[in-house]
Known about the structure:
Blueprint: E1 12-16, E2 18-20, E3 26-28, E4 32-34, H1 39-50, E5 58-61, H2 68-81, H3 85-99, E6 107-117, E7 122-131, E8 135-141, E9 144-150, E10 158-165, E11 169-175, H4 186-191, E12 194-196, H5 200-222, H6 227-244, E13 246-248, H7 249-257, H8 260-276, E14 284-286, H9 289-299, E15 301-305, E16 309-313, E17 320-325, E18 330-335
Antiparallel strand pairs: 1-4, 1-6, 2-3, 5-11, 5-12, 6-7, 7-10, 8-9, 10-11, 13-14, 15-16, 17-18
Helix pairs in contact: 2-3, 5-6, 5-9, 6-7, 6-9
Amino acid sequence: MKKLIQENGPAHIWVQTWNGDGSGDSSPAEPAVFQETDDWTGQLFNYYFLSHFNDNQKGNPDVNHAGYESLKDGLDAFFNEKEMTKIHSFLIEKWHEATGLGDEDAIWFTAAWDSFRTEDYEGPAIGFYFGREKGNFLGFSAGEPAVFQGLPMKKPEYACLVLPDPSEGYQLYILEPSKTEGSRTSWSASLFPFVLLTDDAFHAKQFFKMVKDFSEEVLVKEQHQPREKQISFLSESLDFAKENQGVSIPDFKREVLKEASFIDAFEDYQEKYTGDRHWNPPDQFAMTEKMQDQAKKFVRSVIKLDKNFHLYVHGRKDRLEQGYDPEKKMKYYKLWYEAES
């Protein structure tokens, strides 16, 4: 997956700490609220909040879980009304009851972005983060050495990022300590019950993202193939999935890639792509018509002509012709179409 790091830092950050009396008992303190961050601190927050998620941690809420409706009510209040108090208070109380992990060293962040961008989404987002591992840092204050205490930037102990999902309600990215296979921590079992995205639709989406990135990074940038070659490859990839109502990766290599050098380049790219995203695709998966339509969004090719025009091409290389006008000393594209839409 592409990194989730955003251009702008969070618009709102609530910092939750706990009051303790030294006996082990604690209670949530009043959260501190930050409304604005400058560019430097905003990017530091973005790194801590966003850089550790990957597609292997992505899922949708488990609508059959007993706590789903309460979670959804709080998320609806934020995404529909920009109201953070309900979801923050609900999760803090539930986390404290489920784990008792709130103490003087614990810090919880609730962070909200007004405009969050991914390949599939643009709009508000909200994240929840918990950490306890404080550390000492050597610094300087007024020219004198000083020791500061704070959270290491390596990653939160627990984290959840929430984005709206038109078809499933919400999409969750979950980060939590590793557990034995088949078990979950209280973070995902109680606060954020979710179902991992590992079905055919998920694999199809990842596959065509990989195909598109391969065509751009390898065909165009590394091998310097013309855009027509890229367009033809993407069109053939879509046609292959449509004709077979799914994708067999071995058959895709044989029928679409064909050439040994082309196959080798794709296999090298696939190994790196899947490793970076912790994605383990099956050799074969089905594709419905809806999934095929969604795949077209990922594989469309954009031809940028100077700074004047962008051509969005979904396929049909035979309806696109490139030429050169010797009198104007300029390149041109000729397009054929049946009707404007």
